[in-house]
Amino acid sequence: MGFKLIKKLKNSLARTGEIKTRHGIVKTPCFMPIATCASVKSIDSVQMEKSKAQIILGNTYHLYLRPTDKLIKKFGGLHKFMNWNGPILTDSGGYQVFSLAKMRKISEKGAEFKSHIDGSNHMLTPEKSIEIQNNLGSDIIMVLDECAPYPATKKYIDESLELTTRWAQRCKKHFDKKNVKLRKNDRALLFGIVQGGTYKDLREKSAKQLLQIDFDGFAIGGVSVGEPSEKMFQAVDWTAPLLPEEKPRYLMGVGKPEEVVGAVARGIDMFDCVIPTRNARHGTLYKFIKKSDKIKVSKSPGKFYEIMHITNEKFKSDKKSIDKNCGCFTCQNYSRAYLRHLFSAKELLALRLASIHNIHFYLELMKRIRNSV
Amino acid sequence: MGFKLIKKLKNSLARTGEIKTRHGIVKTPCFMPIATCASVKSIDSVQMEKSKAQIILGNTYHLYLRPTDKLIKKFGGLHKFMNWNGPILTDSGGYQVFSLAKMRKISEKGAEFKSHIDGSNHMLTPEKSIEIQNNLGSDIIMVLDECAPYPATKKYIDESLELTTRWAQRCKKHFDKKNVKLRKNDRALLFGIVQGGTYKDLREKSAKQLLQIDFDGFAIGGVSVGEPSEKMFQAVDWTAPLLPEEKPRYLMGVGKPEEVVGAVARGIDMFDCVIPTRNARHGTLYKFIKKSDKIKVSKSPGKFYEIMHITNEKFKSDKKSIDKNCGCFTCQNYSRAYLRHLFSAKELLALRLASIHNIHFYLELMKRIRNSV
To answer: B2-273 has which fold?
Structure first.
């Protein structure tokens, strides 16, 4: 269980590897489609398998509130509940508490909040977050962190990262208590999250503190809460080299295709983002410019894809598939004109077909990246 | 091309047969899922094939307005546009003009209306309806009829059916002009529609008039516009025996499962209805009471299925599939609890999984009926 470094790109931090989880191996760099409420929006788990997704991400906050982690536990975990047999990473729930829930109150103990669904009161402590993720049967568990707002004062970020470190320690302790009873191959992995906002010294401080706690992998957090691309890359440039080479690095909530490539070149192994599915539901589709099984892995990869607004009039009678070189279900079966028509007529099928294509684009992007390292 | 009677049930009008169309054979009695806007709501054509749908129904009114029949013609017809290679029946557009469009004006010439989408003015004549259905590449074309409101005076219904007959003649004439140029195996089929409301003598009059025009099949119309079940069955009891045995009989817009069985026992071969998909989208699911490959085909078939409101609290932690004997994609892969959760969380996937199940139920019902005749 854990990470195996396979190959490193010359003169770069880019690398390929494998994360061994109790539900199988994930080749990195990888992209994790988001199954917010136990479903990648509009796509069933069987199709996700056909799309060759290696690992998906479940949202602890959503699943805790509905259908509840206790219910999912009764089913033997999220895998069985949603009929997905590959690895699952769950977030800590913290991010959604800060972005979705109402009346948040942060204290040493944890994050108090009101459910956005029914207004009920809840307390998410580091121990509770681990508890929930354990109930979900997650293969990769994230520690609870405070997601500081952007922008924030240095003082705020500093205090926040210190709290995040103390919470990380509590998470580790609680995780070990549960996990130590399991045989090695049945254990989940636990990832720490480096915070520190847009301050170099604070990123370094956070990384240093977390390295002293023994985690199976490290995430870089707090980079997608409204930050522009350059600030995000800066945080990665500061942080990634401080993280141990033999552990996977996960850039949370990132990002656009060029950000993914740029982050791989900076040493990142794992990504998740709502962009492909959310954009798909708005008719925004991705298309590679060149037919190839490789891609230039560089900090500034240049333009390698196009965006297509499928609802545009110009696709009205376009008989071609979205991308003639794409092997996804949608491109194999339907034309741009048909997809445009489904969007115009507000047919539900539009959302599914577009989502399948965009997820495929992201997974194909990761494959090209792995082929190129 | 046309109908072949295979078997008749003893002491009943129920029968099995085959309709040969230019896109393949349809075993009857059959149910036609409705692909309103070139998509069976939430289900792609590949899944419809996997679900073993034999034939689907396209709505002329919707497709004429959007994406337009002219566009679909450019694609080589609806089959190619939506990637469905089986037979397609299209309605005449009349029903939606009467139920959806605004500012309708009926005259000898045709039905004038404003689009419900953009308010634009249109005129649907019998010739125009045939034109559109030809452009769509329909395999079974329906004549334009006036769908009289329910209830209506006898005088209104009488005048309406006379108009319907004159329109049917014009449709036949226009259809023949186009169709006669085609080789026999490339021809579409044209169906007439018997009207006459809830009046026996008017149903007889309409049937008699239509029989004098040579159609490939006959529909019974005007039975689902607000009529109660008994009135519908009465109309079928009066009409079906008057229709030639060697031609298929289609009961438009019907119905609930017990109505379908009851109508088969009265001599009907073809059905279409929005019930399975619309109910699915509201979480109302069908389930056979007994595991069997047959069903009692009778005018009063008794209770052979149950309705399940999947959003009900009692399914919250139900690990069973909707129906343990069901072979549909949904039942093979997901539990009641998962489906209930998807509905609670308003996940798009709920609508698809529920629709796939209900369509399968209807198709399975028809299979059991065919096995039992």
So the answer is: TIM Barrel (3.20.20)
